[in-house]
Structure formats: C-alpha cells, structure tokens
Amino acid sequence: MIEVERKYKLNPKQESALLKDAQFLGSVTNEDHYFDTADLALAKANHWLRCRNGAWELKRRLGALGVGFSKTAYEEITDEGKIREFLGLVGVDTLEADLLGNGYQPFVTLIKQRRKYQRGSFHIDLDVCDFGYEVAEIELMVEREDERTQAFERIDAFAKDKGLDQTPVRGKILEYLFRYARPQYDALVEAGAI
Residue 145 CB: number of other CB atoms within 10 A? Predict the structure, then answer.
C-alpha cells in the first residue's frame, strides 16, 4: 500500500471542523527510533527507517525528491525481509543487530501521543510530540503510484472544504531536526530531500 499524506497546523476552530462527524478510532503513544548511516544516506534520499513500539517500518519515498515537506507519498514496508532486501543487508542476527553491524545507528527518538480518526476514506491523525510540536496529518491509502496525484487533489479539496490553512508544514522528524539538529536538517536541504 502507498500512503499519501499532507500535514497541517490546526487552530481549535479548524480542528473542530475537521473532526466533525469523524469516527474516533483511539489513541496511542508511539515511540519512534529512527535509524540511518552517519551521513544520513537514507534521509538524503527521503527514506525513513524506524522502529515504532518494537515493530520495524521503512517508509520508501515514491516520486522525485523535493516533493515538499507537507505533501508526502511513501510505500510502507513492514516486512523485515523486504527491509533487509532494500538495504542490502544479509540476515545474520536480529534486524537491529544487523543494522548496527552495517553502519546504521539510531539518530532520533520521538515520542508522540496520537489520536486517530476516520472520516469517510480519510485517515486523520492528530499528534502531540514530546518536544512540544503538534501536527495533523490527513492521509489516503492507494494501491498504485499513478493514483497519487488524484489522492493529493482529494486531500487538498477536503482540507480546503474544512477551512484548513494550506501553508506548508514540516513533519515531526523534520521539525525535530530543524529545531535541534540543524546541521543534519541543512544536509537534507542541500541534498534536495526537502
């Protein structure tokens, strides 16, 4: 499946309009440990490898670099064998041990409280991060890469109908790097990843 998503900053009025008639699906605390090489080879290609609450996920960028930080489209790979294949890792030990043995290391840990909602075919996540950042994400899941443009158009029309501010917003990890690890953030900008 392909995740097509746009991020928004919400004021209370916008949050109320967005969640009106939405089904609350629950809340969860996510602890994300992001892994990369010392030179951020994955992030520079806009790929993100994380261990979330003990489960591995690789978000593989689809499309050209520089799509923007508010609009993203990723293939979500959760099968450890496929993650190893993508990274070119031979399975010797646990995935984490093999990552560490091949030059990958944890470089950011984010803890966030997430409230999840469904409104029609739209998934809505409201996140509050442990470093004081709040962001809303509206996403659609599609089967094929050629459905991305239409999905972005649907998200944009839905958000506009709800009166959401269309100003570009950084995602959680990019906001963290922008605030606390500026050299790494600047390296991603220079590489054209954002």
Answer: 13
